[in-house]
Amino acid sequence: MAIAKAERLMNLALCLLGTRRPLSKRELRGSIEAYLEAGSDDSFNRMFERDKDDLRELGLVIETVENLDGDTGYLARRDSNRLPPITLDAEEAAALGLAAKVWQQARLAGAASGALQKLRAAGMPETEDAYEVHSALEPRIPVHEAAFEPLMLACRDRRPVTFDYRKANSARPEQRQVEPWTLECWRGHWYLAGWDRERGAERVFRLSRIAGKVRSRAGAFSAEVPDVVTVRETVESWAGETATRTARIRLRAGAGYPLRSRAIAVRERGDGWDELEIPYGHGLDAWLVEFGPDVVVEEPADLRADVVDRLRAVAKD
To answer: Residue 285 burial (CB < 10 Å; 0-12/13-18/19+)?
Structure first.
């Protein structure tokens, strides 16, 4: 069985690499003997999707293109699957080894391990891991959101997606159609940057606010992907990181630790509440709403009004 699958994967890779135009599923099925022997269309579709995912896991860059007749086609361009010679010194090899241990998410952990094995087989020097031998601390990037893996694959393959998204000032999610660009982790939360088709503009989405499944859609991106996507700068501006003003809020004692870590000053009031001064920038009202009854805005008045408006909008839903 293993030999048969390996042969099937090899034949599929050769077909995708050898074509000058995208091939449809129907054409691929007619070109590969194992697919011709599939008992039904459903059986073939499941086999093809697994094989395509396996080839991508092995590092083959497979493009999904919509043909003129509306059918989805696949190809693997040779220039996209050809790398220049890679030479690494001992320090660079050690840095890659450390980076490979960061991921806790299963798919990325396996991909990182496999990438290291390929580099070592190509001659990357073996190095002693000083962090493993001498340190009790281990770097980790946690991934808890179910939306992470499908969005990571969609960013890699340049596939549009749809998902239900709950804004900070709404209790009910809305469907969004997005061309995903990149994912980035900031202050323990994962964010997606991409092009929102309905709004016709760049948007950043927090993965923990995505409800339900992320669904991939056929077709090419309609907007150009920028060379540099500033996810962190956008999120920082929303959270007040680049603010020049300050806000004064009351925070219930023992609550709101993310706010406390941002505070410029903290004063105990002695009535079960603390008074904090925090940076005030665009989007701070949306962040404060997340803490519900544990936060009361004292000043400025415009921030207090914005928070009240958002809470009323949630109450109406």
So the answer is: buried
98 to 59, 91, 117, 138, 186: CA distances (angstroms): 21, 11, 14, 9, 20
Count Cα neighbours of 192 within 13 Å in the Cβ-side half-sphere: 32
Distance between CA atoms of residues 20 and 23, nearest Å = 9
CA distances from 145 to 139, 159, 170, 187 (A): 19, 19, 20, 15
Instruction: Give the pLDDT band (50/70/90) at residue 251.
Output: very high
Q: pTM of the predicted model, to two decimals? A: 0.48
CB 126 within 8 A of CB 120: yes
* Structure tokens given for 47: 């086999």
Tokens 């590092």 sit at which residue?
Answer: 59
The rounded distance, in Å, linking the Cα atoms of 271 and 157 is: 55
Per-residue model confidence as pLDDT tens digits over 197-220 = 999 988 889 888 898 899 998 888
Among 218, 74, 186, 207, which Cα is nearest to 194's?
207
